[in-house]
Write a structure and sequence with these properties.
about 250 residues; alpha/beta; Rossmann fold; seven-stranded parallel sheet; 9 helices
């Protein structure tokens, strides 16, 4: 049986841990050569070794998505090693939560630089390779926080809302070039980012989800896989909610 991403090359940012790592393994199992792109060298190298030990094809490349030179070097290393870039998953993101009245300009700017400028940098950097090929899949990670807001997350919500706006704009600009641009909108997912949240708050969140559970990283990885595969070739400019129905 032909694997869904056979002979494809995928860059996944923020893939050393959590949802990104789950996506890296999922893509590799489906035949892709995967670049684990992350700032965390220790975790990134360990994750790549773990996947390689399973017989999967991947490599770790350190990148600071907020630094355009770093991003350009990462893409150049990818194309020189694997020859192409077919898929980009803009998964990297950080939080610097604080109530609005106490949020510092530094906290606001740090999140914008990684979550929004980082997506701009990575997408623009892979664009020449995709235009030369006449095809490509770009998937960026938004959040339900960017759709309905969330207390203490002015910076994070702003970036995740911005990602949807950029996705729709790029879909209009690049669709006729054979490049599909979509976003995934995760709900609250059981990752390291959520582990710091008090259990009382988690229970309250779960009570609002019709499916009565947090998302699993595999739930999000499956959505990335669908949008990266040939099955989604006529889906463009869409923000796919993977949130257990919390937005209904």
């Amino acid at each position: 049986m032909v694997k869904r991403l056979e002979n494809k090359v995928a860059i996944i940012t923020g893939a050393a841990n959590g949802i990104g790592l789950q996506a890296a393994e999922t893509f590799a199992l489906e035949g892709a050569k995967v670049v684990i792109a992350d700032y965390d060298v220790k975790s990134g190298e360990a994750s790549a070794e773990k996947l390689n030990a399973k017989g999967l094809t991947c490599m770790f490349v350190q990148v600071d998505v907020a630094d355009r030179n770093s991003v350009d070097q990462m893409v150049e290393h990818t194309t020189s090693t694997y020859g192409q870039v077919d898929i980009l998953v803009n998964n990297a993101g950080i939080t610097r939560d604080a109530m609005f009245r106490k949020m510092t300009p530094e906290q606001f700017q740090q999140v914008l630089e990684v979550n929004l400028t980082g997506v701009f940098n990575c997408t623009q950097a892979v664009l020449p390779a995709m235009l030369d090929q006449g095809k490509g899949k770009i998937i960026s990670t938004s959040s339900v926080s960017g759709v309905y807001g969330n207390v203490g997350q002015t910076n994070y919500a702003a970036t995740k809302a911005g990602i949807v706006g950029m996705t729709k704009t790029w879909a209009k600009e690049l669709g006729h070039k054979g490049i599909n641009v979509n976003a995934v909108v995760p709900g609250f997912t059981a990752t390291n980012m959520v582990e710091t949240v008090p259990q009382k708050v988690i229970d309250q969140i779960v009570s609002q989800v019709p499916m009565q559970r947090l998302g699993d990283p595999q739930d999000i990885a499956n959505a990335y896989l669908f949008l990266a595969s040939e099955e989604s070739n006529y889906i463009n400019g869409h923000a796919l909610h993977v949130d257990g129905g919390i937005m209904m």
